[in-house]
């Protein structure tokens, strides 16, 4: 069974400056994301060992470890590709229409998403996701790496607001980090994710 591996970035660590410094990107990718990859692999190995030995007494801890670490791996893998150096403009085509129809306008969507990001208590994420049951985009406030997330939603755009994501650059001023985030969103990646999410929309229940 293949183990999880750390994906390469499509850009240099310093490429997102000044929105996010190269130092943060290097630590965030090579240390934090790597730790989630390692943790997910360890949890799977320990669960396999527990099955093999019949020693399932530790299963609650291991399932928590798996959800947290695999969540971290998935979240960061999406986050890196949601960003691009020099990205500008905004959503176009179906993505723009979908955002307008559900949230009223791009400005209203960004205000909602930003409020969710600024409102995270402790560690978590603001997430634009595709609800595959209702066939609509929703905004989710994700706790830690795995909490408060309904099953069957597909992330389209994710913003990490753990302190490790911004504290070196912005200290306690998370609002400035979130404002900078909007200057490096790769809307073409978000649009491509929407196309794939729509295509998978009937997986939860028969159409
Ligand atoms: Mn992170």
Structure report:
The protein has helices spanning 22-53, 59-82, 93-103, 106-119, 167-170, 174-181, 187-199, and strands spanning 124-131, 136-143, 153-160. 51% of the residues lie in helices and 12% in strands. The chain has a three-stranded antiparallel beta sheet with strand order 2-1-3. The chain has two domains: 21-82, Orthogonal Bundle (Helix Hairpins); 93-203, Iron/manganese superoxide dismutase, C-terminal domain (minor pseudopilin epsh fold), CATH 3.55.40.20. The protein is mainly α and 207 residues long. The protein starts with 21 loop residues before the first helix and ends in an 8-residue tail after the last helix.
* Secondary-structure element string: HHHHEEEHHH
Q: From the coordinates shown, what is the CATH architecture of the largest domain?
A: 3-Layer(bab) Sandwich
Low-confidence stretches: none
| Helix count from the secondary structure assignment | 7
Bound molecules: manganese (II) ion
Family: Belongs to the iron/manganese superoxide dismutase family.
Binding site for Mn(2+): 28, 76, 160, 164
Function: Destroys radicals which are normally produced within the cells and which are toxic to biological systems.
Catalytic activity: 2 superoxide + 2 H(+) = H2O2 + O2
In short:
Mn(2+) binds at residues 28, 76, 160, 164. This protein is mainly alpha-helical. It has 7 helices and 3 strands.
Key descriptive features of the protein:
single chain, 207 residues, mainly alpha, Helix Hairpins, minor pseudopilin epsh fold, 2 domains, 3-stranded antiparallel β-sheet, 3 strands, binds manganese (II) ion
């Amino acid at each position: 069974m293949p183990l999880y591996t750390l994906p390469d970035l499509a850009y240099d660590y310093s490429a997102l400056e000044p929105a996010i410094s190269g130092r943060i990107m290097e630590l965030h990718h090579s240390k934090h994301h790597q730790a989630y990859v390692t943790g997910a692999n360890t949890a799977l190995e320990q669960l396999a060992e527990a099955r093999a030995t019949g020693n399932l007494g530790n299963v609650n801890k291991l399932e928590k470890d798996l959800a947290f670490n695999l969540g971290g791996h998935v979240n960061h893998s999406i986050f890196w590709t949601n960003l691009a150096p020099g990205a500008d403009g905004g959503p176009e085509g179906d993505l723009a229409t979908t955002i307008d129809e559900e949230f009223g306008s791009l400005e209203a969507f960004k205000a909602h998403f930003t409020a969710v990001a600024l409102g995270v208590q402790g560690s978590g994420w603001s997430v634009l996701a595709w609800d595959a049951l209702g066939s609509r985009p929703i905004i989710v406030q994700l706790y830690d790496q795995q909490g408060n997330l309904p099953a069957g939603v597909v992330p389209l755009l994710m913003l990490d607001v753990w302190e490790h994501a911004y504290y070196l650059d912005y200290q306690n001023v998370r609002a400035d980090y979130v404002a900078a985030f909007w200057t490096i969103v790769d809307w073409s990646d978000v649009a491509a994710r929407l196309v794939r999410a729509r295509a998978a929309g009937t997986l939860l229940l028969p159409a």
